[in-house]
Amino acid sequence: MTHRTPPPALAITEAELNDLRSRLLNTRWPTPWPMGGWEAGTDVDELRRLVTYWANDYDWRAQEASINALPSHHADIDGTPVHYLRFDGESPGSLPIVLTNGWPSTFLELTALARRLATPSRYGGDSADAFTVIVPSLPGFAFSPQRPSLTRSPQTHEIWHRLMHEELGFTRYAAHGGDLGAGITSRLAEAHPEAVVGIHLMAVASPVTYDQAGVTPQEQEYLDSVAAWSAHEGGYLHQQGTRPMTLSYGLADSPTGLLGWILEKYRAWSDCGGDVSSRFSDDFLLTQASLYWFTDTVSTSFRPYYEYAQGLTRRVERVDVPTALALFPADLTLPPRSWAERTYNIARYTRMPRGGHFAAHEEPGLLADDITEFFRAHR
User: Fold this and answer.
1) pLDDT 10s digits, 253-274
2) Labelling 72: which of 30, 228, 262, 295 has CA 20 to 30 A away?
3) 66-211+314-378 carries CATH number 3.40.50.1820
4) Contacts of 116 (CB under 8 A, 6+ apart)
5) Region for residue 188 given its phi and psi (left: phi exceeds 0; alpha: psi -120 to 50; beta: otherwise)
6) How many Cβ atoms sit within 10 Å of the Cβ of residue 26?
């Protein structure tokens, strides 16, 4: 059973803002090493610059007003509160689609993509291609509280289906996701092929089992690249999947620590050529960090990693609904089509010319066009 509640306006108090500024201005910086740059982690000069701006010049009230102007809604799905945005399509009968972000993102990162999909005529497209776009906040991210139990409450893909099908009344709908959102979208399609017309992904689940003897040279090159990435970049993944609470105490107490933890990922995983400001404005990065800070959800954003590592999240075995895979060159992994086809019914496979892990923000036009092209055949 579901029911809606009116969305409360976001209203951070002056006391909360003053507390944030005080913590930023009184940051205890670590003893510097005799090296600079990003090689050993977040660059101290870039972090200091952003912390100074966050404390002194960043206008949270302007960002708060923009967030409050979004088409927010709330639903309660059997005790699990869910915040979501709804962008109605500009044409009658627009195909519904649910967009799911990853980490360290929030719903806010998907708004440019959502607007392009809902009102394509404003961006040079055809109104007949419009979608009605639903952008939920993941449980434990920003405005959606975490699921009440690690084991007994429905998993996120089931919450999404009940939101789309029971709460919003969509008999058939599409889905898109990257990173954590790709896993949720995959499980959604696997569990509810009768409702999901197709899925569009930026990452795929590996096959549960496979014969090493049957791995192609291209697939082996990909597996080697994943192993190399894990060794060089995967420390966060291991920590968040094994001892997330130990990390959480520091990040929930220090906004500088929180910003440092996610800033590194926005730089390393985007198509920015080492200059994070070439893809993300200071205000965008600090609004993402502020959402985590003011809602105190950085610790709960780690739960999907822990639950997966502990075997509490169901593995994707086989997705038979039509699947599109769009790969952006600066994303974490770039699986060959044959590897994706071991698990998915791949109907479209696209190598993008630019963009990275945060493609919905980096390249919303490219991503919207690929989603639109794919779902034309499934409306």
Assistant:
1) 999 999 999 999 999 999 999 9
2) 262
3) yes
4) 122, 123, 125, 364, 365, 368
5) alpha
6) 9
